[in-house]
Amino acid sequence: MDGIVVVTGTGTEIGKTVTTAALAATALRSGRTVAVLKPAQTGVAPDEPGDVAEVRRLAGESVTGAELARYPEPLAPATAARRAGLPCVRPEEVAERAEKLAVGHDLVLVEGAGGLLVRYDESGSTLADVARLLAAPVLVVAAAGLGTLNATALTTEALRARGLHTAGVVIGSFPVEPDLATRCNLADLAESAGAPLRGTLPAGAGAMPPSGFRAAAAGWLSPELGGCGTGR
């Protein structure tokens, strides 16, 4: 996997950042150069490490990190920007930075905030607009449990409606002891999403020592994402 890839999710706290780190670690392990771009980081103080720092901690300091805007309250970027009295992030800015990063890197991962249609500015621009400007594939990170089939199907349907390519679905955190719904979802997710399951990250992956994370990451991802696993 090379070029620019947009990473979105079906919601918050489902493993987007850890999935982004796994993609970065896998690419680095194969000798490729990687950059991670976070258009808008919300809910962190100016001197507090954000998602880009977490990706670099897990995947390796050789990952180039970039962040366009930072807002203190944990809200949708447009709302957080308005409340903080700070400028919004525009899709054109994100696309321009991603394209510049792509000049010097084999893989550029653009990690969104929340879900696909979270607003970035007052005009209603979303991560989908960024993907459209970049003509980039979108990888969807989904939850494992009850309710994920609907949420994932809605996300991939929104991508198709906008003429965007879904690179696949990754389960961001799969429990050690899955319940019945979670076990069934593993079999049903690809059909519901209309997109292949490309990876399954174990619960707690982000708490692993970085060395162990980097060694294991490729096994969580399918060959289409640069890994050596089955995706399940």
Write structural notes for this entry.
Helix 1 runs parallel beside helix 2 and helix 4 crosses helix 5. The chain starts with a strand and ends in a 12-residue tail after the last helix. The protein has a seven-stranded parallel sheet with strand order 3-2-4-1-5-6-7, with helices on both faces. The chain is of the alpha/beta class. It is built from eight helices and seven strands; from the N terminus they run E-H-E-H-E-H-H-E-H-E-H-E-H-E-H. It has one domain: P-loop containing nucleotide triphosphate hydrolases (Rossmann fold), CATH 3.40.50.300.
CATH level 1 class label:
Alpha Beta
Secondary structure: helix percent: 25-40%
Q: Any idea what the CATH architecture is?
A: 3-Layer(aba) Sandwich
SS-based class: alpha/beta
Strand order of the largest sheet: 3-2-4-1-5-6-7
| Count of helical regions | 8
* Quaternary structure type: single chain
Describe the largest sheet: 7 strands, parallel
Distance between the termini: 18 Å
Could you list the spans in which at least 5 consecutive residues all have pLDDT below 50? none
Shape: globular
Radius of gyration: 16 Å
Strand content: 15-25%
What is the CATH topology descriptor? Rossmann fold
State the main characteristics.
232 residues; alpha/beta; Rossmann fold
Could you provide a short overview of the structure?
The protein is an alpha/beta fold and 232 residues long. It has 8 helices and 7 strands. Strands 3-2-4-1-5-6-7 form a 7-stranded parallel β-sheet, sandwiched between helices.
